[in-house]
Amino acid sequence: MNPSKPAAAAAPEETPTATRDSLSITDNRTGRKYEIPIKHDTIRAMDLRQIKVKDGDFGMISYDPAFTNTASCISRVTFIDGDKGILEYRGYPIEELAEKGTYLETAYLILHGELPTRTQLEDWTYHVIHHTFIHESIKKFLDGFHYDAHPMGMLISTVAALSTFYPDAKDIFNPDSRRKQTYRLIGKMPTLSAFAYRHSLGMPYAYPDNDLTYPANFLNMLFRTTELKYHANPTLERALDILFILHAEHEQNCSSTAMRGVGSSHVDPYSAIAAATAALYGPLHGGANEAVLRMLVDIGSVDKVPAYIKGVKAGERKLMGFGHRVYKNYDPRARIVKHIAYEVFDVMGRNPMIDIALEVERIALEDDYFISRRLYPNVDFYTGLIYQSMGFPVTMFPVLFAIPRTAGWIAQWEEMLLDPEQKISRPRQVYLGAARRSYVGIDNRS
Ligand code: ACO
Fold first, then answer.
1. Catalytic residue list contains 380
2. I need a surface site. Which of 29, 264, 330, 351 has the fewest CB within 10 A?
3. CA distances (Å), origin 404, targets 85, 186, 193, 398, 409
4. Which residues line the pocket of ligand 1, CB cutoff 6 A?
5. How far is the CA of 389 from the centre of ligand 1 (A)?
6. Over the stretch 297-339, which tens digit does the pLDDT of each residue have?
7. What are phi and psi of 75, to 5 degrees?
8. Global pTM?
9. What does the pLDDT look like over 35-64, one tens digit per residue?
């Protein structure tokens, strides 16, 4: 998160030694004073290291479990102002991209920093589309999975396996190699996902069709049966494309942090994407859309919503699809998703779960528990209803998140690799375990 800078406060007159761009620290253990530079409203944690009680001390470190107030990188990809509900990719508001753009155009923007020209978009689309096929051996891995294997497990495994097919991907500091792996990853994630889905149904795999758009080709690989040529419903095709735009990138969330952290060991991008996909799988992150649908089924009917909310307030469970580490006002993506839901219902019929969801939202938004904690619907609250209406089983919901997020993961990975300040990711700890002691033989242990 990088909220806009507040208006500069007047310089305090009584502290003439302090400059406006530094932080004065007095260590009350020693009485020593330190001047720590401030840049971009930030101090460097390493500047704290000089603060010591005596020579030979390790020096002060900062403690920040879950990184709630620590920037781990300088980034130029995504801007979020959680208090104002603003999300921008490379400076472009998410609302405008969702209204006017396509996913492939947005992925290009996220990866390259600028919207593509017509020629650049044609070239980019051509290359992505011509990297959608996967090696036939991957079908053999998929065949080894149980029929009810979770598709995220299959996706994590198969994307990791891609690294064994493309050893050239280890050449991570070669821009040509990175470009090639980018085409492959953006092109193949839908194919791996669709094949995992078909495997769970016991259906023959449907191969990519280069004539179709990115979202239409995905629908083709999922749902084509006997027709010679698949024709996607244009409303569903566009709805899926917008959902892909909304999920394409979201700065330093859990999965992007996994991508950067694992990638910082200089492993190939397929292995790092497998790690990021695993991070996304959890119910507190991308698995939340699946958890929301299960929650709505669990609630069962509109009249049971108040009792369910009571249980949430009593700490028995969380309200899935509510709350966000960064958005404390409203998730701007949730507003767009709610709108798409009704467009999809016009084609596929109204999803009866929407009434339960609306009642949950209505009651929660009026309740002091949620208001005081600034808990609002996040992007996942309504996406599950759309996916279900489009015919996806709940287990596919996080997969539908992982496909578009691949663009964001690669952009974050590449930014990390090319940042001269970045090194292998390795946080510190505050050790509070046992003090040094001698080994005790097994006969002498109590
Ligand atoms: N339901 C009920 N209470 C909640 C919820 C929720 N969904 N989310 C947070 N709270 C409560 C916490 O219990 C805590 O209460 P307390 O102050 O009385 O202890 C308070 O709100 C603050 O919550 P934190 O856990 O500190 O918030 P954090 O920023 O760590 O967590 C998170 C954010 C993980 C998203 C959390 O809100 C959550 O678990 N939500 C449900 C899962 C979900 O929808 N995840 C999707 C996020 S969007 C995405 O990843 C795409």
1. yes
2. 29
3. 21, 8, 12, 11, 9
4. 284-286, 288, 312, 318-325, 373, 375, 378-380
5. 27
6. 999 999 999 999 999 999 999 999 999 989 988 899 998 998 9
7. -130, 150
8. 0.92
9. 999 999 999 999 999 999 999 999 999 999
